[in-house]
């Protein structure tokens, strides 16, 4: 579920990237805070098995509520949809927190120590291996359920969230079957030690303040009330807790895989032959590497390091794992510096941007008033200007500019004349697209298309595509149809304001699958275009300007507004490899260390 959660928050619930990241990590924080509650319940009242059973019911319910929240037709108000989503996430945080401290410990209960210490170590390896085998499958399949299945005309988050709910329910049934078959050793609750520990610390601090008697250790003040054995244990506990200070920092970094690293992947190219790797599928690398590297560390790396007298104990391994987590983010930062060079350049205040497109069937010479030189373009060529200053010397905005177009009328299809220098209005921080085309009198004109270009890449990483058009008014009710191997799309002519029987305008952008598309107007094939991940494109449908045969329409291919992603998603593998090695050394060793210390 975590694999797609960040995209659900951003794409469907319309939170910004930063807000989505905050929500994601606050929820992750709850998931790692609520185990305290689960541990208290297990130790004080229910025991580990019953705690797992009852709280797993809350877990299943939370997944079900989250799945229902993603069914958009049920919720006409986005605010209500957000509230239901947060309720589902809260139930999941309670559910996962309730069972998280019990599952690994319940497994450890099945072993007799110290006789089966080696088997216990192997159990934690197998336990972690099994978790990541499930994670491998789910992280690969869930994005497919989200993206390749359409629900209510959009990504199918409800199905992607619903499948984990069903599988969690099946897991609960399997757990119960094991109990009915008497396969488990059930350790009864022995009471929580938190009350005694907190009382011991509180008593020691109270007596230390009230008495001036010096003790060898400040906790020794509590011996009279709590006894030497408990005080000694608390001393050891406080020393051990110091070792856990790096724990939140490690997991804060590790969980960036589901947020910032996923957003990072949306700005990269996932094309592998004829298959496209989805940004949220990149998270599959971690469990895949876990499955490969756990046996490698167990059978090769640790024995080899032990032969060299290195990392033989648990704490040095955990320390090394923490250092590797930092190294992974140094690598990620270096990759981000390279990615920043592929991002669209924002338009600064006091500036505008213009893309001139020549659709006339001849060479034209354009002279825009914002440029020092003329611009020569053959048919279907386009020129993207650098930022144009639209402020005067006294800092007043200058909106009105002129574009003069020259061409040889006799060599330009059925175009018989040209318009006077055309005035266009440029807006601040706007990417305008200006068509050099023809009106109903076959005279050359210059049209500033509304709406302007959107230079930003899509948040999902998919290509963004829109249509520019110059068509007769009677074509307005027709649709332009894109036929692809993965998905089909429709573009409607949206502007009915016409000039002498013709309409020159543009549509809004749609996110489409990276693919090759055949373009049809009604039943007539116009041509073929190819779009790639991260690219922003305009394509043109216009009446024939080469002859008087107005039944012929031409698709001229693509105009690239923003270049597609050029750095491949597989460049994320080095940082995933390092964070996975870090996880094995820090997390798996930490599980074993924690269990053996409390024994």
UniProtKB/TrEMBL annotation:
Q: Which GO terms describe its cellular component?
A: membrane
Q: How does it sit in the membrane?
A: Multi-pass membrane protein
Give a yes or no for keyword Transmembrane in this entry. Answer: yes
Q: Where is this gene product found?
A: Membrane
Q: Which domain of life is it from?
A: Eukaryota
SUPFAM superfamilies named among the record's database cross-references: MFS general substrate transporter (SSF103473)
Molecular-function annotations in GO: transmembrane transporter activity
Database matches in InterPro entries: MFS_trans_sf, POT_fam, PTR2_symporter_CS
Q: GO biological process: any one?
A: protein transport
Check the UniProt entry and state the signal peptide residues, or none.
none
Residues crossing the lipid bilayer are: 22-40, 52-71, 83-103, 123-145, 157-180
Its keywords, alphabetically, are: Membrane, Peptide transport, Protein transport, Transmembrane, Transmembrane helix, Transport
Query: Which family is this protein grouped under?
Result: Belongs to the major facilitator superfamily. Proton-dependent oligopeptide transporter (POT/PTR) (TC 2.A.17) family.
Record's protein name: Oligopeptide transporter 1
| Lineage, opening ranks | Eukaryota, Metazoa, Ecdysozoa, Arthropoda, Crustacea
């Amino acid at each position: 579920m975590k694999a797609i959660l960040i995209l659900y928050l951003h794409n469907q619930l319309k939170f910004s990237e930063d807000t989505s990241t905050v929500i994601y990590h606050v929820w992750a924080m709850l998931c790692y805070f609520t185990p305290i509650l689960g541990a208290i319940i297990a130790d004080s009242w229910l025991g580990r098995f019953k705690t797992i059973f009852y709280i797993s019911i809350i877990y299943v319910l939370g997944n079900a509520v989250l799945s229902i929240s993603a069914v958009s037709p049920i919720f006409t108000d986005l605010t209500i949809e957000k509230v239901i989503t947060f309720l589902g996430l809260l139930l999941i945080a309670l559910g996962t927190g309730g069972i998280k401290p019990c599952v690994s410990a319940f497994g450890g209960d099945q072993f007799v120590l110290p006789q089966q210490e080696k088997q216990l170590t192997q159990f934690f390896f197998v336990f972690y291996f099994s978790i990541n085998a499930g994670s491998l499958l789910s992280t690969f399949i869930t994005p497919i359920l989200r993206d390749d299945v359409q629900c209510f005309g959009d990504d199918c988050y409800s199905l992607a969230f619903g499948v984990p709910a069903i599988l969690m329910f099946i897991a609960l049934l399997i757990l119960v079957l094991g109990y009915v078959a008497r396969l488990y050793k059930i350790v009864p609750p022995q009471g929580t030690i938190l009350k005694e520990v907190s009382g011991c610390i509180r008593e020691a601090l109270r007596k230390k303040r009230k008495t001036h008697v010096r003790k060898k250790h400040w906790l020794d003040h509590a011996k009279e009330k709590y006894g030497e054995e408990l005080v000694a244990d608390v001393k050891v506990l406080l020393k051990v807790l110091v070792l856990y200070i790096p724990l939140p920092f490690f997991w804060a970094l590790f969980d960036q895989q589901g947020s910032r690293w996923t957003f990072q992947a949306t700005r990269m190219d996932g094309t592998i032959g004829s298959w496209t790797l989805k940004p949220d599928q990149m998270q599959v690398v971690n469990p895949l590497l876990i499955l490969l590297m756990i046996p490698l560390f167990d059978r090769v790396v640790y024995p080899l390091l032990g032969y060299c007298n290195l990392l033989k104990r648990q704490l040095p391994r955990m320390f090394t794992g923490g250092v590797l987590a930092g190294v992974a983010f140094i690598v990620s930062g270096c990759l981000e510096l390279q990615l920043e060079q592929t991002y669209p350049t924002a338009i600064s205040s006091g500036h505008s941007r213009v893309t001139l497109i020549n659709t006339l069937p001849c060479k034209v010479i354009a002279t825009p008033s914002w440029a020092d030189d003329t611009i020569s373009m053959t048919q279907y060529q386009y020129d993207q200007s650098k930022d144009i200053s639209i402020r005067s010397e006294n800092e007043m905005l200058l909106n009105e500019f002129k574009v003069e177009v020259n061409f040889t009328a006799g060599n330009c299809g059925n175009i018989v004349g040209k318009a006077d220098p055309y005035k266009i209005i440029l807006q601040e921080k706007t990417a305008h697209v200006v068509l050099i085309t023809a009106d109903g009198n076959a005279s050359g004109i210059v049209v500033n298309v509304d709406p302007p270009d959107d230079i930003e890449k899509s948040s999902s990483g998919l290509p963004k595509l829109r249509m520019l058009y110059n068509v007769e008014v009677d074509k307005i009710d027709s649709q332009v149809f894109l036929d692809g191997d993965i998905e089909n799309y429709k573009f409607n002519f949206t502007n009915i304001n016409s000039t002498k029987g013709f309409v020159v305008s543009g549509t809004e952008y749609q996110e489409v699958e990276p693919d090759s598309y055949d373009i049809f107007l009604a039943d007539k094939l116009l041509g073929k275009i190819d779009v790639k991940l991260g690219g922003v494109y305009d394509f043109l449908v216009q009446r024939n300007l080469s002859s008087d045969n107005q039944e012929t329409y031409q698709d001229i291919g693509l105009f690239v507004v923003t270049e597609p992603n050029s750095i491949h998603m597989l460049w994320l593998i080095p940082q995933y490899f390092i964070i996975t090695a870090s996880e094995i050394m820090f997390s798996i060793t930490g599980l074993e260390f924690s269990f053996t210390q409390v024994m």
